[in-house]
Amino acid sequence: MVSTHLPHLTRPQTWGLTCWSMGIIVAQRAGLLMVAVVMAALLDRTVTATRGCLRDWYLDGKDKQGAKHGSKRRTLEVASCFAPLLRWVIHLSPAGTHQIALAMDASTLGQRFTVLSIHVVIRGCAIPIAWKIVRATAQGAWRPHWETLFQDLTGSTPDGWTVIVLADRGLYAKWLYDAIQKNGWHPYLRINRQGKYRPVEATEFRGLSTVVVKGEAGWKGRVVCFATAQRQVTCTLLARWTPGYTDPWLVLTDLPPEEADVAWYGLRAWIECSYKDMKRGGWHWEQTKMTDPARAERLWLAMALATLLVVSVGVHAEATTPQPVLDDLPDTHIARRRKGDTPPRRQISCFHRGRLLVLVAFAHGRRLPPMALIPEPWPESLDTSHDTPAAAAPHQKAA
Questions:
Q1: I need a labelling partner for 326 at 20 to 30 A (CA). Which of 26, 53, 246, 378 fits?
Q2: Where is the composition biased (Low complexity) (predicted)?
Q3: Model's pTM, two decimal places?
Q4: Gap between the Cα atoms of 249 and 268, Å rounded
């Protein structure tokens, strides 16, 4: 399976990645010793030998066993796996699927690492497909790293697909908007409300804080955003301010207003679930002893593959589990009385459901359970207006 979707890897690299990812799933840990103990037992090898092979896998070629004795050892280039990982995700999508949502964000591991990563978001989970790890205390801009990640993913989605890239307001920049468009994808970037905008048919700029009122209908339309010439972008502005939130959602995209929905931005929150799955909620990466970013990036490849496997198993199981049909129940049944307008909350994540099903398959000596990435329909807004918002009344100066 790994050699099919990552055919450019050497046999030792494929073997190491497979052992690492399966060991992580079984041990529910991404630590070298824990994975070595598990895989040694499964492969009927010594822990010492297994640990040495697993450690060799994430080292630079010059640091591997035998490198000093003339043996040629190749360094695993993690970036070469990013586009194949996204293609693997698309391969697991059902026929007829023509859209996918990506989310990007930064996460830290204490004072050691900062991870810049792009994930596919699906059914409350997120699967890492591209990342860059830098030292948390390192100086320098993130822009070159993000631009390189998008370049690494160029050409990895089929023609005709709608790909949206979601990012929180802390990451917004015009160069990021442009970098996403270069891939033929659609930015879905949240911005702060301190700037200005004007509808394309208007001549005067207005404050972004006046687009929507909390609790009232949302708005979307074509605008020129930001008054400063260097920052200006002609785009679609999506706006909504839900009661209970301190700030409104103000999202910029290049999709036409009639094809975009501000509710889609809610998918971005699922990347936070992925960071939790990588750490205390799943693979316990927070316990790693690694200090070298390049080695950590290779470990992330193993964790990403483990995540892809368990999420795809969990998604298939969730999507194919028969749901109760209320029409078959009597009118007085308690399920009818408890039914609300919103869908029921997910009781177990696809990540954990899939991991448990993989463990059960191992326990019974079976093959991996069926895998598929069947998305749910994207959320929809019911209250978004296309009408141009009225200009805010000018503030009166104090006497």
A1: 378
A2: 390-399
A3: 0.90
A4: 12
